TrEMBL record:
Entry keywords, A to Z: Heme, Iron, Membrane, Metal-binding, Monooxygenase, Oxidoreductase, Signal-anchor, Transmembrane, Transmembrane helix
Keyword Transmembrane helix: yes
Cofactors that this protein relies on: heme
Originating species: Rehmannia glutinosa
Family (UniProt): Belongs to the cytochrome P450 family.
Alphabetized Pfam families for the sequence: p450
Major location category of this protein: membrane
Topology class, membrane: Single-pass type II membrane protein
Protein name (Swiss-Prot/TrEMBL): Uncharacterized protein
Keyword Glycoprotein: no
Length: 189
């Protein structure tokens, strides 16, 4: 939500898509989720830019190997910085900007086939929430964006939204997000 209110163009695009798909029914349901291409791009971009777990669980090498000229002994523990990988300008054009459209040109997905995008880990022990997490986020976000418009309080502008994150086992916002919901599509009775 923070990235969407900070980027009104993206918010408008995703709401337009949702309202086009669900206006005939008057409610969001999972039957038409395959039509929500832009919403899926927004979620992918959110996981790239704000991975839930910035440092993936430690991994351990099973055998000695060499990486970029460095000898790595067996049983070496490695921490993977998913946050830095998602912001690496070597792999992402304009890496510090929230641009869901980048995934139209770059065919990467949650399955860790492209190591520059691994919000759910990689290898033999990927996150068990890899399927469940995005599905729940899609449904909740779709309902919030379909039924409500969102405005910032007290004349606040999108550029005033602070995006500082606190890091720990998981990542979270340092500053709470305050937005005002305005009913756009009432829930059917």
């Amino acid at each position: 939500m923070a990235e969407l209110v900070k980027n009104p163009r993206v918010l408008k695009n995703v709401q337009d898509e949702l309202r086009q798909v669900f206006d005939a029914k008057g409610r969001v349901d999972e039957s038409n989720f395959d039509e929500l291409k832009y919403l899926k791009l927004v979620i992918k971009e959110t996981f790239r830019f704000h991975p839930t777990v910035p440092l993936l669980l430690p991994r351990e090498s099973r055998e000695p190997c060499q990486i970029n000229g460095y000898d790595i002994p067996a049983k070496t523990r490695v921490l993977v910085n998913a946050w830095a990988m998602g912001r690496d300008p070597k792999y992402w054009n304009d890496a510090e900007s929230f641009k869901p459209e980048r995934f139209l040109e770059k065919s990467v997905d949650f399955n860790a086939s492209s190591l520059e995008y691994i919000p759910f880990g990689a290898g033999r022990r990927m996150c068990p929430g890899m399927i469940y997490g995005p599905t729940i986020v899609e449904l909740q976000l779709a309902m919030l964006l379909y039924h409500f418009d969102w405005i910032l309080p007290d004349g606040m502008k999108p550029e005033d939204v602070k995006m500082t994150e606190l890091f720990g086992t998981t990542s979270r916002r340092k500053h709470e997000l305050f937005v005002i919901p305005v009913v756009k599509r009432p829930l059917p009775v």
